[in-house]
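User: I'm new to structure prediction. If I give you an amino acid sequence, what do you actually give back? Let's try with this one:
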Amino acid sequence: MRKEKKEELASYVEELKTLRKELVEGNRFLDIERYKCFLNGGRVVTREKIIKGRGNGDASIILPITVDNNVILTVQPRVFTKNTVGISLPAGYVDFGETHLDAAKRELLEETGYNSKKINEVCHFYQDDGCSPAFNKGFIAEECIKVADQSLDKDEFIRFFECRVEELLELYDSGYILDVGSQFTIEKAKEFLKKRG
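Assistant: Good question. You get back a string of structure tokens that encode the predicted 3D arrangement of the chain. For your 197 residues, that looks like this:
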């Protein structure tokens, strides 16, 4: 990876590291429902379901490729991880009444200010089918162009990082990208990326 890109990424990681955490009471984004489930064969099992923001937690993950053939990653606080900062693809929840494709377009624009008219699904998967109905879809967004500034929620702090395709693959292979949604989307897009790199 180019020295200046390593330094840029390191500065974002340092800026967004968590210094400390304090337990807070009050409104909760996550909730848990407990179910008794009756199986076809007569057995009964008890399972817990995670509720995210009063929804099921469906999300879209986007691998943006610019008109200059670069890719865009996000760097943001992930306070419960070992490093407290995550390097990943742009992603976000699907809002009520929205499709995964609509969410992909919206999240790309909000998190990076980039837009694409050529977005294709490359994968889909359950986030954690043992305790959540969250269904995720991964997309490649081609020919991305910068059309706006970031438009983040009040508690979102995201830096976006543009690099070459081979640098993305280097970051992925060397363990910088640990988010499973990003990893799976990149893995499913590898053949496409190798043709462009």
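You can read the tokens as a compact description of the fold. Here is one thing that stands out. The first strand starts at residue 30 and ends at 38.
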